[in-house]
Each structure stands twice: as structure tokens, then as C-alpha cells.
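Task card 7
Instruction: Convert sequence to C-alpha cells.
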Amino acid sequence: MSLASGGVTSGSGAMGADKPPGNPGSDLIMEDVILGVHGGTGLDKKDMTPELDKKLRAGLKAALEAGAKRLTEAGSTPLDGVEAAIRVLEDDPHFNAGRGAVFTHEGRNELDASIMEGTTKKAGAVAGVTVIKNPISAARAVMAKSKHVMMIGRGAEVFSTQQGLEIVDPAYFWTEGRWKDIQRVWEEEKAKGKRADIEPKSSTYFGTVGAVARNEKGQIAAGTSTGGMTNKMFGRVGDSPIIGAGTYAEDGAAAVSCTGHGEYFIRYGVSKEIVSLVKYKGLSIQEAAQEVINRQLKDAGGEGAAIVLNSKGQWTTSRNTEGLYRGWINSKGEITVRLYEE
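Output:
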């Protein structure tokens, strides 16, 4: 797969940006995409600063460049592109994954991730880990080097150590912004004399990063990584490490990575539902994503989004939130990055 040098488009651009009639919160289907990423639904637009806007766009672009470079190397697979892209986002403190993870009610950073390839449907996941620098690599190690699909907590950490993955002190994941977030929640709880609402309506409480990729053979893969939900209870696990909820991939249908209020994505099996609508009902990826995100999920009160890529290189997103940090790159090396834009 060739990858020529291309430019970057932010918002409206050469690859098309008109809002599809009757399809709120959806990108048009883009063609010839080899890799797409998301960085969560993020802040409300009114809270976005020019400085943060610039950093988020730069982070998404860096992830796309790293993922595409890895994806187009000789002998690489879509899994390689997905892992490389997500590792960049995990290392960027501006996203809720890896180093930028939010804090739990106990003031810890607990990380989840999953990865899946669409040819054999092999998958791997980790949940509730606290010392693995790049959880997406741990998820891939579970898939490739164990007989299991998911490992959690201390067991996942021991396994990752045995596989030679980078282990860090939990303090590595501490960031000032996330620490201030949890302190505000604690202050709210203290003032009210009870635990804060565990079903937040604001997307600032949660976030995720993810990637989807394909190669010239039509093989696809997806991955998702997160720090979870701000102020989550001990032992809480969301949709990101759960195959069929936050992540799913099947050649000939679609690769999906989700972000949002995980409890709803688990209950509605969002990523698998989108793939099933494509596979069994013959819906386009845009129609399938919209049906699940902007009808089923929205009607239930679930907030979030999904990015979708099929084996033909068609890409779309759907969200029922104000924003979705996302971007994609085609085989010509042309990159598009959007935060709130249609």
C-alpha cells in the first residue's frame, strides 16, 4: 500500500464536510481511508480554548502519521497500525487514556484497553491496570501470547511484565488537569454530603481513544483504550475492554471503536450491533452507525460516538454529542482532523 505525502485538513476541507441531510452528528462516508482515530467526545465546545484545540489536533495528527507509517511498512498488518496510533494517544496527556487518564473515586488511575482483528476475530483486552505504560500493547500481548481474551488487574500487570512491556510507576499517569477534575468532584460530594452522581450527563466525565485500520487485502482491525470515567467506583469497568461493546472488527463488514458512557455501550453491544447491521441487513456503515448511536443509544439516554471503517476503505463517524475528536488518513497521505465540525 503506497502512502504519498499529503496535506492536513481541519474541519471543512477537500475530502468533503457537508452535513448529510437528516443525519445529525454524522460524517459523510469518506473513500480510500486506511486509518482513522478518535480521541473521545471531549469538552463542550464553550469550554474549548484555542491552545487546547491546537494541541488536540496536533495529537490526532501525530497518531495518524505514526499509525499510517507503521501500517504501510513491509509485512505489517492493520493491527500494527491500530496499536501504533493508539500508543501515541496514550502517551499524550491531553487524551483520557494512558498518561492522560482520569482519576477514580479513590484517586487512582485505572486503565482499560482492547484490540481485535477482523480476519480470524482474534482479540485481546486488559482492564483495571495501573502500571502498564501502554495498555493497548498489553491487550495485543494477551491476544497474541496467551490463550485468553481478557486479563485484569494484577494478573494483567504480571503477564505484561513477563512479556517485556514497559512498566511505570503509577505516578507517571498523574496530570494536573485530571487531578483538579477529581478534586472538584470531591468538593461537590463534600458540599452535598453524599457521593456525586455516578451517571454524569457531561462528556467531560469520560473519554476514550481508539483507532481502526485496513490494508490492501481488505483486512481490518480496531482498538480502544481509556482511563475510564472520572470518579468511577472501585472495580468499575466500562465498554472499552469489552469485545462487542467498545471494540469490534470483522472483515467484509466493519471495524468499530467507540467512546462514551460505557454502561450503555455494554448493554446495547454497540460495536457488534453496528457490524451486524452492516453484515446482516446490508446497511451502509453510515446508516448502521446512525441507527445505533443516534437512535437506539440516544433514545435510551446513552451519550457517545463511534468511528467506523470497512474493508473497502469507507470511513464514517456517528455521535450524539456536541463534539468528537477524530481524524483519518487516506492512501495518498491526506489527513483530515475534526473536533466539532461536521
